[in-house]
Write a structure and sequence with these properties.
This is PDZ domain-containing protein. The protein is of the alpha+beta class. The chain has helices at 2-10, 12-22, 67-77, 256-269, 289-298, 337-348, and strands at 80-87, 90-103, 106-112, 128-133, 139-148, 153-159, 185-191, 198-206, 218-220, 232-235, 240-244, 251-255, 279-283, 305-310, 325-326, 328-329, 332-333.
Length: 349
């Protein structure tokens, strides 16, 4: 049949028919593909998010969830803004942010420090200008208040004559307890710098540490673009449990309880202070099954962190060795490396 079709296209009558279709809008003639070039294999596909992609999802991705989850998402969307930074009228970075407070006509927007820093340098760009785009499309001028390059956090203040919706990060740590058998479903939100441009992506919390060099970062399976950097991560109960970053194969995020303590340090000290505990630890659930099997035989049901490195020898750490499992700090149980860091920060206050 394919051979007959090819012969027909090569004939005078076939050529006349091709000319007819070419000259009759809106149709266009497409020659048949030889059977030798047809394969049953699907084309190779690799998901590669790009900075130039204007969206990483739509609200429709939540249609398979309950209406309550979608409603929580729409409520939180009122606090999600688009951000753009410029230096000497040259575009620097575009991302998302969350209004966490509005007091006396000033809104406090939390986002990623990538908005204000020089490329590949932990320095704030000179002659910086920040635009804050509200859901309605209204654009306000923002001013940088605080920056921490270790956690990659930035606080932008924005003045507004009208009340701006705000929502704080959740201080609850139980959602990150991988020993609990509850849902780990999450939603990542972001916004472009234009009117009604809400972007969302759903996924799950995954029990491993980010590839970035920060042991406090956790990971979700939500797939976003760089436009979603600095946007909030929400659980299915409507709580903001973290702030998103970007990676090609996963979405790292700073847990909400760490964000709260960083904001508290900004208010109290003007910067984030990190006491040196001298340990590098990893969430126990990240270990290979062969290692976990040995641990389970001796300590069934154990939950905590495993020591990877003792960086600063000291009298209080003299008994701690690589491979040790830590389950409590000052009698407080935990299940992730992020919780260890916040307990250290709390001990400083």
């Amino acid at each position: 049949m394919y051979q007959k079709r090819l012969e027909f296209e090569a004939s005078e009558k076939g050529k006349e028919e091709q000319e007819k279709y070419r000259s009759t809008p809106p149709w266009s003639w497409r020659p048949a593909v030889p059977i030798t070039e047809v394969t049953n294999q699907p084309p190779a596909f690799e998901w590669v998010p790009s900075f130039d992609v204007d969206k990483f999802g739509r609200i429709s991705v939540l249609k398979c969830t309950s209406w309550r989850v979608e409603e929580y998402t729409l409520e939180l969307a009122e606090c999600v803004v688009g951000l753009q930074s410029f230096t000497e009228d040259k575009h620097l970075f575009s991302c998302s942010g969350t209004i966490v407070e509005f007091l006396k006509g000033v809104g406090c927007v939390v986002t990623s420090a990538s908005l204000v820093k020089l490329p590949h340098q932990d320095e704030i760009a000179d002659k910086l200008k920040v635009n804050v785009c509200l859901p309605s499309g209204e654009t306000l001028e923002g001013s940088v208040s605080n920056v921490d390059f270790c956690y990659n956090i930035c606080v932008v203040h924005v003045r507004s004559t009208s009340q701006l919706p705000a929502k704080r990060f959740s201080a609850d740590t139980t959602f990150f307890n991988f020993d609990d058998c509850h849902s780990k479903d999450v939603v990542a939100l972001g916004r472009l710098c234009k009117r009604w441009s809400l972007n969302v992506a759903s996924g799950k919390l995954t029990p491993r540490r980010s590839q970035f060099d920060c042991e406090e970062l956790l990971v979700s399976s939500c797939r976003i673009s760089k436009r979603g950097v600095g946007g909030p991560l929400m659980d299915f109960d409507g709580n903001i449990i973290g702030m998103n970053f970007y990676d090609k194969k996963e979405t790292p995020f700073v847990p909400g309880f760490i964000m709260l303590k960083c904001l508290q340090h900004f208010n109290d000290f003007g910067r984030v202070i990190r006491p040196l505990h001298g340990l590098r630890v990893k969430t126990l659930h990240e270990e290979q099954l062969t290692v976990l099997e040995k641990i389970h035989l001796v300590f069934p049901g154990v939950c905590g962190v495993i020591v990877e490195k003792v960086q600063v020898p000291s009298p209080e750490h003299s008994e701690i060795k690589v491979g040790d499992i830590i389950t409590h700090v000052d009698g407080i149980p935990f299940s992730s490396a992020a919780e260890v860091s916040i307990l250290v920060i709390l001990s400083f206050l």
